[in-house]
Amino acid sequence: MVEETDEIKNKVANSSLEPLNLGDFYPEGERISIDLKDHLFEGLILREKDFRAYLKNEDWTKYQNKFVAITSTADAIIPQWAYMLIASELEPYAKKVVSGNRDTLETVIYTESLRENLHPENYKDKRVMIRGCGDKELPLSAFSDAVALLKPYVKSIMYGEACSNVPIYKSKSEVQAL
Predict the structure, then answer these.
(1) Considering the domain boundaries, does residue 100 fall inside one?
(2) 161 DSSP 8-state letter
(3) Residue 163 in 3-state DSSP?
(4) Domain-embedded: residue 7
(5) Do strands 67-71 and 31-35 pair parallel, antiparallel, or not at all (unpaired)?
(6) Cα of 88 vs its chain's centroid, Å
(7) Are residues 55 and 89 in contact, defined by beta-carbon separation less than 8 angstroms?
(8) pLDDT at position 12
(9) Number of independent structural domains in the chain
(10) Is residue 6 situated within a structural domain?
(11) Where are the beta strands (DSSP E) in the chain?
(12) Is residue 5 very low, low, confident or very high in pLDDT (cuts 50, 70, 90)?
């Protein structure tokens, strides 16, 4: 029988772990792909004159504040200048433009978001728990980027949840303290 004076203690809440949810750094905004296959002559080659006509007539304002990946799903050789021309047109409107697929886009914008918003110095000498579950689908690179940013500042980094975690890194001072 439990006595009335026995108190349930939340050891996780009282621990010295600093939780870090990488989903908090997820850059909000619509993601769009522009597929250069749609501008190939007979699905094989990019004709400069036709391509420049497309660039001139396209309403670029529809990409306002969007993240844009310029890609090609065709089995064709696309000249590098085609990507550059589209990027030049998008620059005044889009939040971010990358040459590559959606995975590349997610990696680039997430890396930038972490570098701008994580502030690793706020975790100086702390034991950080990078959360493993969340409602956002994050690029795999987000986790390694977070480790690289935090490592110079923290005592340790773990991944998962407090009740079930995987040690990732321990500083030399943390190892010596054990």
Answers:
(1) no
(2) E
(3) coil
(4) no
(5) parallel
(6) 23
(7) yes
(8) 46
(9) 2
(10) no
(11) 17-20, 31-35, 67-71, 96-99, 127-131, 156-161, 164-170
(12) low
